[in-house]
Design brief:
The chain is mostly helical and 78 residues long. It contains four helices and no strands. The protein has one domain. Helices cover 83% and strands 0% of the residues. It is globular, with a radius of gyration of 11 Å.
């Protein structure tokens, strides 16, 4: 797993965690879906017409494998 991918994902998640929906809404579709999963924001996924299963599929295996690590880092930020 790439540390670059982890840092990118974590950065996008932190941006959205701090800036809310306005910071999240400017991200790419793939980033938005992954970040919504990391932040447990099913409401954001719903605005994109994504189910949780579709979001997991869209996020892909690399970022899904990084998801627990990103969530732990976000929890440690709080």
């Amino acid at each position: 797993m790439s540390d670059v991918e982890y840092r990118h994902f974590l950065s996008k998640a932190r941006d959205a965690q701090k800036g809310g929906e306005p910071a999240w809404s400017v991200q790419s579709t793939g980033e938005k879906v992954a970040v919504a999963l990391a932040l447990n924001r099913a409401d954001w996924l719903a605005t994109m017409n994504y189910t949780m299963a579709e979001a997991i599929e869209r996020t892909g295996p690399v970022w899904i494998s990084l998801l627990p690590r990103v969530v732990r880092a976000l929890d440690n930020d709080a």
